[in-house]
Design brief:
Elements: H1 2-15, H2 22-28, H3 33-39, H4 45-48, H5 52-61, H6 69-82, H7 86-101, H8 103-128, H9 135-157, H10 163-175
Length: 180
């Protein structure tokens, strides 16, 4: 999966996102066209799908029970980002820049974030014993997703910035009630 993504990013840099085909990506990754679709449903998914959700879930669930859901989620998100290698961070930055610059990718990313919001709702419900329909839980998950989208957009506009520092600062501001 990671190999396919690296080849796709190289081709997107070389030819542009729209001009690059799934066939070209499969050929560059030395896989068949049908094998590509075993890993990704669409060309957009090459940029949007990653293996970080299971790591986030495991890290969140291992946080001490006395922590608030936001503190536990912040700790889980930051620990995941801290474990990324410089190459992974560079790839993430490049994927993020591309996603934020191509309208259809940005729209697909928003859909992906709605799925992430559902995951945060589920994790929060398990931690707090609240129901999925609880508006406070949904607003909480939406706020966390909003922070992530804001950080992604800022990072795309300022690639020299430290992603981990941005994420930590933004989540700390959310935890402090977003004072302006």
């Amino acid at each position: 999966m990671a190999s396919i993504q690296l080849h796709a990013l190289r081709l997107f840099r070389q030819y542009g996102y729209k001009a690059t085909t799934v066939e070209q990506i499969a050929e560059a990754a030395e896989i068949s066209y049908s094998t590509f679709f075993r890993y990704f449903s669409t060309k957009e998914d090459v940029l949007l799908i990653d293996n970080y959700d299971p790591l986030l879930v495991a890290s969140f669930e291992s946080q001490p029970a006395h922590l608030t859901p936001l503190t536990a989620l912040r700790n889980a998100m930051l620990s995941g980002a801290k474990e990324m290698t410089p190459q992974e961070l560079s790839t993430m930055r490049e994927r993020n820049e591309l996603v934020m610059s191509v309208p259809e990718l940005r729209a697909a990313m928003i859909n992906n974030m709605v799925n992430m919001m559902d995951l945060i709702i589920e994790l929060t419900c398990r931690r707090t014993g609240r129901e999925r329909e609880d508006l406070a839980v949904r607003a909480f998950a939406g706020a966390v997703i909003g922070v992530n989208i804001s950080v992604m957009q800022y990072y795309a506009e300022h690639p020299e910035a430290d992603f981990l520092a941005l994420l930590e600062e933004a989540l700390n501001k959310l935890e402090a009630g977003l004072p302006l």
